[in-house]
Amino acid sequence: MLDVKEIRANAGTIEKKLQTKEPSISLASLLSLDAKVRDLKTETDALKTKRNDFSSKIGEMKRKGEDTKALMDEVSAIGDQIRTKDEELKSLEAAFISEIERLPNIPMDDIKISQDPKENVVIKEYGKKREFEFPFKNHLELNEKLKLFDFERAAKASGAGWPAYRGIGAQLEWALINYMLSIHIKNGFTQWMPPLLVRRETLYGSGQLPKFEQQQFKLDDEDYPLWLIPTAEVALNGLHQDEILKEEELPLRYAAYTPCFRREAGAAGKQERGLIRTHQFNKVEMFCFSKPEDSPALFESMVQSAEEILQGLKLHYRNTLLVTGDMSFASAKTIDVEVWLPGQDRYYEVSSISNCTDYQARRSNIRFRRGKDKPEFVHTLNGSGLATSRLMVALLENNQNSDGSVTVPEVLRSYLGGLEVIRPVQGSDA
Questions:
Q1: 348 shares a domain with 224
Q2: Domain span holding position 345
Q3: Which of 100, 130, 160 represents a domain boundary (last residue)?
Q4: What residues act catalytically?
Q5: 167: domain CATH number?
Q6: Using N-to-C axis directions, what is the helix angle for 28-64 and 69-100, rounded to 10°?
Q7: Please, are residues 389 and 309 in contact by the beta-carbon 8 Å criterion?
Q8: Sheet holding 376-377, edge to edge
Q9: Across 209-268, where does the E strand assignment appear?
Q10: What's the CA gap between 70 and 77, in Å, rounded?
């Protein structure tokens, strides 16, 4: 959430910056509501002061034995006015919150202004695209013989868009997860295993609600109004809701593996099939809490931790700095790490690292204190480290051999009992 004091002081500048994310944004209604709320609070406070003064006077009159009926009638009338204004104030404040909570975070000044993702700025490339000496296959074609996952049987259980890993595919998925966590732990992250179901307030705090409500899964249970997490970012941010952290605790670096659940509406076409876009996927998440002045350096270290994983897997990737219109709702700066997928003939994001500044902290009321100073809001940062589904696609497609087998990257072999090559399944294994 944005700081209303900053909006009051710099409304024109902030509106222009927000419009670089969403051109339709206008602050006129918000400012009008803010003015009405402040005026009404002033009027209500004046009435309450008047009532208190009259109440004190009534006490004095009673002690003197004087008639207080007229004054008490006036106090009663003032009370009615206060109750009416309090109800009006409650309605206005709700309308104000509804306006401000739908505003995205302000992009940093060094972000390119554009609504076109094609204008995202490539800031780094690692390795080169593999050149094949044989007709290569996409991950679904490879899977016909490798039997690593089964979408048809998953559809029987859950419907379209839900993956089911099997055999070596399931083991390879776990190998990736363990390998990624080992990198982050080495780099100073504390591993968490957070809940997969969270309260509405927790989703709100991370910026998922109310804007993205239609993309979430929730329980149809009046006794447990909980939501499935779309990313571990939500749960990790929620761990410190309404807390005041100590300065010496910061930065906090967290890493967590969780399944993630999202309604992926409109996913169609050959480029979106298989593991490319699903309702459930596995992801290792990085999440950090920091002092404001430390967040830029922490952001770079998170990018490096994500890159270290891909470099260990010897995968070609590139880093892109997202333009204003392509950044997430809560982000002030985002770098996407994208791997090359031969079967899709394009780059796909496997990590998105974002500095959310104090946006989530305001919504979640997460602060820290410098000594005896007034508490300040922390900065929060998040990043995939990494999402495994597209990473699995990258591994299979970039490490395939002419006979349909797939070479296992060296860094994963110790997690797979030394397995070096995943070979096509022989016979009628179903």
A1: yes
A2: 117-422
A3: 100
A4: 262, 277, 349, 352, 390
A5: 3.30.930.10
A6: 160
A7: no
A8: 244-246, 367-369, 376-377
A9: 227-228, 244-246, 252-261
A10: 11
β-partners of residue 319 are: 124, 337
Cα-based distances in Å from 23 to 15, 31, 115, 143, 357: 9, 18, 9, 44, 22
Report the number of distinct structural domains present in the chain. 2
Task: Examine residue 51 and state whether it is found in any structural domain, yes or no.
Answer: yes
Closest CA to 396 of 129, 134, 137: 137
- Which pairing describes strands 406-407 and 379-387: parallel, antiparallel, or unpaired? unpaired
CA 388 – CA 395 distance, rounded (Å): 10
Separation of CA 78 from chain center = 47
Binding residues: 231-233, 262-264, 285, 349-352, 382, 384
Nearest to 68 by CA among 52, 79, 55: 55
- Binding site feature residues for L-serine: 231-233, 262, 285, 382, 384
pLDDT for 60 equals 87
Provide the pLDDT confidence category of residue 267 given band limits of 50, 70 and 90. Answer: very low
SS3 content of the chain, % helix, strand, coil (to 5): 45, 20, 35
157 and 264 in one domain?
Answer: yes
The enclosing domain of 86 has a CATH number of 1.10.287.40
Q: Does residue 270 carry a pLDDT above 80?
A: no
Q: Which of 67, 100, 133 delimits the end of a domain?
A: 100
Mean of the pLDDT values across residues 273-284? 92
111: in domain: no
Q: Does residue 429 form part of some domain?
A: no
| Residue list, annotated binding site for ATP | 262-264, 349-352
Q: Are residues 28 and 132 in the same domain?
A: no
Pull the structure tokens for residue 101.
């909570």
Q: Please check whether residues 171 and 207 belong to one and the same domain.
A: yes
Q: Running DSSP on this structure, what letter comes out for residue 265?
A: T
pTM for the model? 0.92
CA distance 238 to 255: 14
Residue 266's Cβ-count burial label (10 Å; 0-12, 13-18, 19+) is exposed
Give the tens place of pLDDT for each residue, 395-423: 999 999 999 999 999 999 999 999 999 99
Q: Give the position of tokens 């982050």.
A: 184
Element at 121 (helix H, strand E):
strand 121-126
Residue 86 sits in the same domain as residue 164: no
- Average pLDDT of the chain to the nearest whole number: 94
For residue 273, being part of any structural domain is answered with: yes
Query: Do residue 62 and residue 126 come from a single domain?
Result: no
- CB within 8 Å of 245: residues ≥ 6 apart: 252, 289, 366, 367, 368, 369, 378
Question: Do 31 and 141 fall within a single domain?
Answer: no
Same-domain check for residues 288 and 396: yes
